[in-house]
TrEMBL record:
Belongs to the glycosyl hydrolase 3 family. This is beta-glucosidase. Its EC number is 3.2.1.21. Pathway: Glycan metabolism; cellulose degradation. Pfam families: Fn3-like, Glyco_hydro_3, Glyco_hydro_3_C. GO terms for biological process: cellulose catabolic process.
Amino acid sequence: MRSTSIALAVLASSSSAYASPIEALNELHSRDTLASSDPYYPSPWMDPQANGWEDAYAKAKAFVAQLTLAEKVNLTTGVGWEGEQCVGNVGSIPRLGVRTLCMQDAPVGVRFGDYVSVFTSGQTAAATWDRGLIYRRGRGIGEEHKGKGINVVLGPVAGPLGRIPEGGRNWEGFSPDPVLTGVGMAQTVTGIQDAGVVACAKHFIGNEQEHFRQVGESQGRGFNITGTLSSNIDDKTMHELYLWPFADAVRAGVGSVMCSYNQINNSHACQNSKILNNLLKDELGFQGFVMSDWQAQHSGASSAVAGLDMTMPGDTEFNTGLSYWGTNLTLAVLNGTVPQYRVDDMAIRIIASLYKTGQNPTDLPPINFDSWTKNTYGYLHAAVNSGYQQVNWHVDVRANHASIIRETAAKGTVLLKNTGSLPLNKPKFVAVIGEDAGPNPAGPNGCDNRGCDQGTLGMAWGSGTADFPYLVTPDSALQAQALKDNTRYESVLSNYQWSATQGLISQANVTAIVFANADSGEGFIDVDGNAGDRKNLTLWKNGDDLIKNVSSICPNTIVVIHSTGPVLVTDWYNNPNITAILWAGIPGQESGNSITDVLYGKTSPGRSPFTWGATRESYGTDIMYNATNGTTPQQDFSEGVFIDYRYFDKANTPLIYEFGYGLTYTTFEYSNIQVQKTNAGAYKPTTGQTIAAPTFGTVDTDLSHYLFPADVSPVWQYIYPFVNSTDPAVASKDPSYGQSPAQFLPPKATDATAQPLLRSAGKSNPGGNRQLYDVLYHVTADIKNTGSVTADEVPQLYVSLGGPDDPKVQLRDFDRIRIDPGKTATFRGTITRRDLSNWDVVQQDWVVSSYPKKVYVGQSSRKLDLVADLN
Ligand SMILES: *[C@@H]1O[C@H](CO)[C@@H](O)[C@H](O)[C@H]1NC(C)=O
Ligand SMILES: *[C@@H]1O[C@H](CO)[C@@H](O)[C@H](O)[C@H]1NC(C)=O
Ligand SMILES: *[C@@H]1O[C@H](CO)[C@@H](O)[C@H](O)[C@H]1NC(C)=O
Ligand SMILES: *[C@@H]1O[C@H](CO)[C@@H](O)[C@H](O)[C@H]1NC(C)=O
Ligand SMILES: *[C@@H]1O[C@H](CO)[C@@H](O)[C@H](O)[C@H]1NC(C)=O
Ligand SMILES: *[C@@H]1O[C@H](CO)[C@@H](O)[C@H](O)[C@H]1NC(C)=O
Ligand SMILES: *[C@@H]1O[C@H](CO)[C@@H](O)[C@H](O)[C@H]1NC(C)=O
Ligand SMILES: *[C@@H]1O[C@H](CO)[C@@H](O)[C@H](O)[C@H]1NC(C)=O
Ligand SMILES: *[C@@H]1O[C@H](CO)[C@@H](O)[C@H](O)[C@H]1NC(C)=O
Ligand SMILES: *[C@@H]1O[C@H](CO)[C@@H](O)[C@H](O)[C@H]1NC(C)=O
């Protein structure tokens, strides 16, 4: 135990002594104390009146009231890794005909499924800046999961947000901008849940790098750390940056949230009462259930009272056959450590989320696929080769989603440079160069969890993957287009066939299109020394040399980049022989068709969802790659809210392409900004109290009734809610069994009395105080297409809050508008109270400061032609 500890929140609240939060944090770092997380208890219970949840609550209450304790525990506890067909399953309730609930990855399609689609990455979807398209993508993803019998889709992702450009999983999320990510979260959650499955906003929170996210994984790489990485985040930064998009997900009615592997201020995310009880459930009014990331639970009763509702995959570590919950949770309720209301609240949150998304727990369609085999027959309990039966019905769930995927990847491709070579129009001779244009010799799914970089990069690696039903390579689609146009076409699908390449691109009339990529993924796979996180920001496989070599010879070189984030283009981007540069993100199964649509001007491109810095250092943040044995790695988010463009604007470090930037095949002119103030009135802090904690049904306290029933023949290593002995100490298999709650739970952890509502919380309003979302200003601007082709413009609205610690500008609204040549369209944006507020760490509420504020409208974070005062 630490004898002295300072909570970052407390420190930040006295930050008036410092010139800036950054200075305050620097001060902290020079101390020999660790950041700590304030306790916050009791864990909030569901609100029967919560907006959008009333109906689901009533149904769930009636349902949960009939359940026994063991049945409720079954809902909360996974059956163990590979214990059933999905990546996560909880126990069933045979008495009422409720089958096991199925949780499945997720963010680009049904992981491990056959006959499923592979959608674009979240980051590529963000690059479309198209709310409707992001919704349709989410809906398509939801429909495919629904069609396989899945109940909970483990996405979308707002953590990582993208604090560090090298972050391995940034592609799964949307953008380092919290507003763009918040829109991505809300649209995707709504789309998924409209399809009749529960969405899961993950990973909550501060999960910004892969290195040191798990002790075992780190030990395997020679770092004998004692605890998982602690993301040390101050209260203001938490609210203004990392929590923001989760608030949008909660406001959109998300049914579940996944707590992350990392610690936050030295408390594990899945037992951190500050983030789960306080921020998520109390302040944001989250009504759904919190599930752990796989093996991210590290305690039993402590995680229960800190706000965790479901443990995944249920065992303490993969395939131990033991659980912090299951038997232990049954015992903990019976011996009075965990109050009944807490288990009742876990159960009602899980069941209400099903009802909210139109799923009747007693009438769930069967799970018709299997994560652990593509065969028709297999073991139902794959971990222990038990229960051989039909496990896969090979249901084709793809419907018409290919067209959504093609459109998303094309509209999310960013045109970074074009000196006139694009769009292509029946070119005489096209030469496509580079391995990234062609197939993986092992096939599109040839590498386990896509853990390699061979052929075109259609998907990055890790658990956020799905198996391609096909992958249209750039080479095949561009060749098909060439054949249609009677264009001569040749490709060299290697980065290392220089003499053949040279022979081709030095010929007259050639348009050379060079493809190169940079990959990353989840920390359990290391590809070429990239342990999840990228080890550098350059292109892979000598992509830079290939581009330099081709462009040194060919005066019409077009570069296409597939990547999981920015790469350094500094050395070659301004070579005049490079006539165009495109970032095609992580496009999914229609890759080649999408890039062809943009190169040939059939689809209008998107805008960059992150900044392209000139150097690695120019971002001001980096991965923590190294740790000292015997310590818990400490990662201080000392830059505060200054990540990506906020940092470049503040530190004035060099960049090549700014956040929000992207060309089209036409030009636009902005004029006539108009600002109209509404009369929203003054902000009213929320007052009042919750109800007292309800309980549903009664608990049978006779331990002998929890012995394994005669009609259950236990599967080896499977997690059950039952006990093996009427001696609880024996049943718990825990040498320290018998500790009373007072010995290890914090004060108030079991308090069931009515609790005061937070001033920043919404009264029955998921998302926070409802007045935060009041529109304070309407802003309009005219945009004229001054070129000669129809194209989509993405007008962006930024504000400056005016204070010395505020970013120069911050994105607050945007739209994507199709405008014909010569025509003028009106952009309509709004500014809410939240958009103009700062988090006040003393008042613990959002406050609009008295600094003069401005609104800007323009084409990117650095091209803001229109400005007006907000009076
Ligand atoms: C809990 O789930 C398991 C596995 O599905 C099942 O065998 C058991 O009967 C369930 N327990 C109760 C009390 O329903
Ligand atoms: C850290 O511990 C590992 C064993 O887990 C060992 O292989 C490694 O050499 C140690 N590193 C240092 C710097 O002592
Ligand atoms: C109960 O939890 C403890 C850790 O708190 C663990 O050691 C023990 O194995 C668990 N018991 C069962 C039956 O899973
Ligand atoms: C109650 O059960 C839990 C879970 O097995 C255990 O950790 C705790 O020590 C027990 N407490 C008492 C007082 O029996
Ligand atoms: C092809 O190249 C030749 C030689 O440089 C040039 O004269 C001709 O105009 C080019 N034709 C086209 C269609 O680019
Ligand atoms: C960056 O990493 C990639 C992938 O591991 C590698 O191919 C490339 O050579 C590295 N770049 C540099 C400059 O070392
Ligand atoms: C551009 O290409 C021409 C050949 O067409 C070559 O002579 C020249 O050096 C190249 N320029 C650069 C900056 O690479
Ligand atoms: C990592 O840290 C260890 C222990 O402090 C040190 O010996 C080693 O040189 C560091 N490695 C790198 C690559 O910085
Ligand atoms: C890792 O460190 C612990 C002490 O923190 C030590 O007991 C253990 O032996 C170390 N493991 C290895 C593989 O060095
Ligand atoms: C409880 O007993 C059953 C049946 O003997 C056995 O399969 C199971 O592994 C035991 N579970 C625990 C947690 O001890």
